[in-house]
# Entry
Amino acid sequence: MGAQVSTQQRSSDHGEVLSVHSLDKWNTQFQNSKTSNKLMVIDFSAAWCGPCKFIEPAVHDLAVEFTDVDFIKIDIDELPDVAKDFDVQAMPTFVLLKKGKERDRIVGVKKDELHRLIEKHRF
# Structure
């Protein structure tokens, strides 16, 4: 019947989680975040990570709710150097950046805490 549109395919103004698969793309996103007042939430995950898969729908819901926040997903197996730069020790790890600087961090499946920290840091 009607076509379904996943949140990953929508524009960032409508709640997208942007999956970054290359170092060049990450560097572009990171440099852009340094000059922007927008909060960036980085979701460090892995394809084999059960808890990451469990919280993924909630992260997409947050991206829909907070269209003024950039949501970036990074697979630590694809971009291990980025994970190392952010000292990611476990997954999922959510790093909240503003103007290129870390404002907060959450390790684990903690949707309510992530929601609270997004509210706290988005403006």
